[in-house]
């Protein structure tokens, strides 16, 4: 399996330098990351929302080593919120955040991340939108869920992400499938040991369906994070069986992947949200996109051969 190899490369400084220096890399990265600044990405926001799509926006960057960098990440999101305000998109443009960007891995990181993310969540609520806390590797999740619970006391629409490949997630889903919750279900994109996570695709897919059924039958708002046509079809059937209306759940897919499917689902009346990342520190995000789907890796390799 190439996925674990690519994920290992995502943590290699040598591979970062090699890939970043390749002439074709920027062209390929642009498929997944439409810009490095707010000014570059706002036209994409207007284009996607003009086509009936919704967004969740991610300022990329996870290699935070100082409190000052964590504060800068907070400020980048506050700038984004300030720039979104005049567009009056409300919940059509929300934000996704990784707590590692807000200092979670630093000494005193739980309290630091909470202190940095709280003003972002409050500012988002102030313009009528919300924030979803992304899931990272399994060692960070207890902290993430505790921060999520704390934030929801004042901003109950704050969402979180759960990962189907982790053994713990079925229990997490039962706890989270409550009234007012917003939960995005993804397969998972980090290299996890066999002690905590399913390793085979068919096992992950089966877990995904079990967890999605729990969310659909619960009282919260499920967000289906998948590009898999079979899982999308299953999600639609589970929603019908649970008696959910089209505005009582949503699909989420990555910018640059299956764009025609984004538009098809929106045209059918589904809420379709595009995960749109931007920023200069794109390497880790880009490598996980390659690891998630073999077609992404083939696309990159083909571009390296034909354009390099």
Automatic annotation (TrEMBL):
What keywords are assigned to this protein? FAD, Flavoprotein, Nucleotide-binding, Oxidoreductase, Proline metabolism
**What Gene3D superfamilies is this protein classified in?**
3.20.20.220
Pfam families (alphabetical) = Pro_dh (PF01619)
Its pathway?
Amino-acid degradation; L-proline degradation into L-glutamate; L-glutamate from L-proline: step 1/2
* Necessary cofactors: FAD
Q: Does the keyword Ribosomal protein apply?
A: no
**Is Protein biosynthesis among the key words of this record?**
no
Proline dehydrogenase domain ranges (all copies):
45-301
Q: Which InterPro entries match?
A: FAD-linked_oxidoreductase-like, PRODH_bac_arc, Proline_DH_dom, Proline_oxidase
Give its E.C. classification number.
Answer: 1.5.5.2
Describe the reaction catalysed, as an equation. Answer: L-proline + a quinone = (S)-1-pyrroline-5-carboxylate + a quinol + H(+)
Name listed for the protein in its UniProt record: proline dehydrogenase
